[in-house]
TrEMBL record:
Cellular component annotations (GO), alphabetically ordered: cytoplasm; nucleus
Protein name as it appears in the record: NOL1/NOP2/Sun family protein
Compositional bias per record (Polar residues), positions renumbered to this chain: 54-63, 485-512
Primary location: nucleus
GO molecular function: tRNA (cytidine-5-)-methyltransferase activity; tRNA binding
Subcellular location: Nucleus
Amino acid sequence: MAGKRKKFAKTSKKSTNATTTGNDNNNNNNNDNVDDKVLKKSKAITDDSKNVWGPNTMTNEHPQGTKDWYTSIAKNDDFEFYYKKMNLLPNEEDFKKFMEWLGKPLPTTFRINRAIGESLTNVVKKQLHNIIDQLPEKMIVDGDVVEPPKPLSWYPDELAWHSTLTKRSFRKNDQLEAFHKFLMHHNNEGNLTRQEAVSMIPPIFLDVEPHHLVLDMCAAPGSKTTQIIEALHANRSNSNTTIPEGMIIANDADVKRCYMLVHQTARLGSPTIVITNHEAQIFPLLYLQKEGETERRPMLFDRILADVPCSGDGTLRKNPDLWKRWKARDGAGLHRLQSHIAYRAANLLKVGGRMVYSTCSLNPIENEAVIMELVNRCQGAVRIVDVSAQYPTLIRANGLHTWPVIDKDREIYQDFSQVPETKKKTIFPSFFPPTEEQAQKAGLKHCMRVYPHMQDTGGFFITVLEKVAELPDQIGKRIKYEQEFGQNKQDQDTTTPPLNDESSTTPPLNDESTSTTTTTTTTTQVKEKKSAVHKFFEEPFGTINEECKKDLDVAEAFYGINKEFPLREQMLTRSQGSKVLYFASKPIVNIVEGDRNRRLKIINAGLEILKKHDEFGESKCNYRICQSASQWITPYMTVHNTRTVIMSPNDLFTLLRTTEPLFTQFPKSIEDQLEALEHGCFIIKIDTSLKTSLEDANKDKQVETPMQTDQDDIIAQSNGMVFASWRGKRSIHLLVQKQELQLMANIFKVTIEHRKGDVNPKNYRVPNSSTESPTTESPKNESSTDAATSDTL
Ligand SMILES: C[S@@+](CC[C@H](N)C(=O)[O-])C[C@H]1O[C@@H](n2cnc3c(N)ncnc32)[C@H](O)[C@@H]1O
């Protein structure tokens, strides 16, 4: 596969790569309110994303964002009282440091997206090292010593970086200009994702492999989802064109935030993703049909991430406004929802599978208490995994074994018997710590706590769990299922035990309080509640019909797509006769095919691969290739087929510089190929090894050569790039969003020249095969029609 395959699936100029956040869970313990709060928070996240580099609250004009401002705002007596009593850090000095670091601005951290392919990853790393080499070891900005960016020691392959530099420092120090430009440029390009360091931890402990079926239960805005997608594409390299076997379902209860997920993941151009809109605690059981079997069987996941909604006090450095609002009851109010989600995760996990439970909260009621509740409820079927040997340079504290329960009036209870009747509606037995013996038996110390002062980050809680047996209430259901289908045989691979279905899962937690609880949301109430955020209007996905298959026969012949490409088998559509076809990995198609999976509320699945182009005029094939999927299909287009034209980086400059370059603007050999090409869609592939010979060819033709030797790194980025393009009468047009082309032109330092005759380059007119003029022959409004889709660079 071309090393640059992802390069062409980027839609994001300003990524909404906000890091994880807890819910804004003020003043109540009713889980139903989560949704409204989430909506508000979702707005906050969108707004945050505008501020691409530097702490979110930072502006240059306002004292907000200065060190002193942080120190002054970082105060909340209740918070300090609560966590002191919780004995979070028994050593007084450590607790002091913890409080002190919570009052400091959060450094900027970013991740190089591994999914961009090996060669581009190396180019980005090399550029970064070059910039850092030019910086002094220490710089003074605003009287403070600032250091050049450093890789996070614990993150694999130098892919995650940390910098104490902020927007403010960039503006105040000329030496930092190159670094600032690097960040802006690669962030816009989708090569980097800004993400809090601690938020990168859960996915790396999930240990995702390319064939895995993964569920990300609370996924929006999607920074961890993108990490998981990268792991599913881990085999992606220049030489490996294999289409991934695995899949990730990225789910969120908030439909608006699901669209943030669509946007965030579109940049990666992956056929492995499905975005769904369910409450995680009642995520439906899906059914897969294995090869050679006639019946569908319950589908269990290899990996599940439960990055649950939480009170979010681990994000105080990033969201200092939270200091004013922090309340002990915020965490308590989410405990039961978190427990339900964790139990549903355990339910949907394969035996032998791994799940990670995480929060950006420091509160044991949302963390260890939830884990203990899960372990107890699963009666040995789920165990906490000791991962202390993994990522040893990541500094972390052990999970707590004990903690008091403290209410809003600062009353402290050591066990449930001390709780007055009036408070039993809000304080549950599962809030309380286990006995020391139980904690040891469960391995509670293997939970991980990351505190701000340990390595200059936010706070996070992470626990890795493994399912070692079927859950007690799954066993009876499996036997019943096997009897029903006459398959009373043992599954050898442990992957298919039937389990709780949506309707029968997440029964109330097994604590005595459940029956007396009136204010806590039960599963039934959750299901019955039709909140506005759950309205779902998406057209369902389905497989393609016979008529469409006939069209695909034509497309196959037209583009010279070889039989190894699953053109019909891995194709989805939203309605028969729809203009768009989607390419998806096998398990996704399998799910969509199953009638029993109809209740799955799919927002998006796979990626757009073929689109009808009725309005484009003359072509033998009804479908054009979408830019987002061109990286996947191009390696399967036969070399001798004329619908792939190999060009040099010089030709790329010509393509970028001129909105619709004439065939005659290219070297003779390419001009001839373009002349010989039938009208319609084709693929341009950039090959940097053609550089020298085509420079020579350009000389003969006296074509300007914009390439300069000091641009080598940038030029290397173009190797393997593929562009869906349109062959007109005498000129060609890239089927790529206009803004993406502009961005590329910026990267390659090319000024776009609009040729005489480009009346309105933003709004091309429809080409007409009989009357088209060479200067205005491209598809109508190509860029803007695709703007909301993933059909982009
Ligand atoms: C901590 S954030 C997740 C952050 C995300 N994992 C990331 O890394 O970008 C929690 C998410 O849970 C969602 N949420 C809240 N209640 C939920 C529920 N019952 N089921 C599923 N998602 C829920 C919120 O909309 C929010 O997007």
